[in-house]
Amino acid sequence: MEKNELILEKLNRLENYLLGFKSILTVEELAVYSGYKPKYIYQLVSKSLIPFHRNQNGGAKLFFEKKAIDQWLLGGEHKTSSQSTQDAFHHIAQSNRRKKG
């Protein structure tokens, strides 16, 4: 790898690292942060499938709260079978308490 390529790669990693400290992201920053292409992000916005904000004055620029994006990205959690079993036992126990009470 050439010296220039190595420098660019390190700058890229540093830029990605610094995104983790921002609380508000643009479409371009969200693309880097999430790995989604900007075009796909715009599609999600147009279908209201992703949390986003616009400027109050009706500006066209989109902004994304990193905290909301993190929750959205992790929203499709799939539980392990042991977690599902534990949840089922907990639900049954609560149902039985209600019936007895």
TrEMBL record:
<protein>
    <submittedName>
        <fullName>Helix-turn-helix domain-containing protein</fullName>
    </submittedName>
</protein>
<feature type="region of interest" description="Disordered">
    <location>
        <begin position="78"/>
        <end position="101"/>
    </location>
</feature>
<dbReference type="InterPro" id="IPR041657">
    <property type="entry name" value="HTH_17"/>
</dbReference>
<dbReference type="Pfam" id="PF12728">
    <property type="entry name" value="HTH_17"/>
</dbReference>
<feature type="domain" description="Helix-turn-helix">
    <location>
        <begin position="25"/>
        <end position="73"/>
    </location>
</feature>
